Structures are given as structure tokens and as C-alpha cells.
Amino acid sequence: MKPLVSIIMGSTSDMPIMEAAAKILDEFEIPFEINALSAHRTPELVADFAKNAYSNGIRVIIAAAGGAAHLPGVIAASTTLPVIGVPIKSSNSIEGLDSILSILQMPQGIPVATVALNGAGNAALLAIQILALIDQSIFNKMTTYKNNLAQKVVKANEELKQVKFAHKVN
Predict the structure, then answer these.
(1) Strands across the sheet containing 32-36
(2) Three-state SS across 137-165?
(3) With 90 as the cut, is the pLDDT of residue 165 above it?
């Protein structure tokens, strides 16, 4: 089985955050791979990965990086596949703002979809939604997932009706 999604991290220290993406991809039964590549320490490996990702079966790339966070952009510069950037609040970041802006502010022609700081779970869900465009079974799983989210809110409101306060009117 070939991976459809590639999770790339600038460092294995990002794994505690990126584990959320792996868990969601697992839940949806999407084949994926996880690797550490550095835009600054292994630029040739990053370029090689990005240039060959499509021929290796990859259809969406999730790239996470902290600090200067160049990895998602460097990957996007070398592939036509969709790249989803996950800014990481790292030990050398400025509360994660540097990571967010490094990934978000890409030049024209090199798009990187960017999720929230440490938003690996949403990155996986976006990757799944992209794959759902061409795979009905993935589309059906995503539809069920979204319906379940809605049902949780309905259930929460039913439970809130049971909460009593002197001036609560619903």
C-alpha cells in the first residue's frame, strides 16, 4: 500500500503536535507516511522528496515547522501537489507568530494552505477533504464525521437544557 498523504516535520520534536494528524488519518484509514526533513539542514533531501512525491503516490503533503518555518514553502516550491502548512510553536519561536507568518505569507504562485498554530488535526482533515474530491468512500467517511460533529452539538444543547439557574429561561 502506497501512502496518499505525507506528514513532513522539520524536526522530530514536532511529533507530539503532528501525532494528532496521524491519529485522524489512521481513523479515516488513509495510508500515510511520516518523515523529518529540514529546509535548512537537508535542503537537497527536501527538494528530492518534493519533486518525487507525486510519482511515489503522494497526493497531499502536510508540512510542519516552527521558528522560521520555511519547510512548507520550500516543499511547495518544488511540487504541484497541495501543501498544508502547520505552524508549530517551538522553543525558538516568538509565541508561534513567526511560524504562522512564515507559512502564511507565501509569494504568488507558491500557495501553502495554512492551519492554526499547532493545528495538525485540522491539517489532516483538510487533506482528507482534498482526497474526498476523487474518492467516494473518503467523501462518505467525511460526511459521517461532519454529521457526528453536528450531533455532538445537538446533544450538548439537550444536556444544557437540564442545567438549572434561577434566571435561566431555556
Answers:
(1) 32-36, 5-9, 60-66, 83-88, 113-114
(2) HHHHHHHHHHHHHHHHHHHHHHHHHCCCC
(3) yes
Contacts (Cβ under 8 Å, ≥6 apart) of 134 = none
pTM greater than the 0.90 cutoff: yes
Q: Where are the beta strands (DSSP E) in 10-164?
A: 32-36, 60-66, 83-88, 113-114
Residue with cell string 489512521: 26
In the three-class reduction of DSSP (H, G, I as helix; E, B as strand; rest coil), residue 71 is classed as: helix
User: Residue ranges per domain, the chain?
Assistant: 5-136
Residue 104, CA atoms < 13 Å, CB-side half-sphere: 11
Closest CA to 63 of 131, 123, 13: 123
The residue-averaged pLDDT of 154-158 equals 95
Q: Nine-digit cell at 161?
A: 437544557
Tally of CA atoms within 13 A in the half-sphere of 35 that contains its CB = 16
Top-tier CATH class for 5-136 = alpha beta
Per-residue model confidence (pLDDT) at position 93: 79
CB 3 within 8 A of CB 32: yes
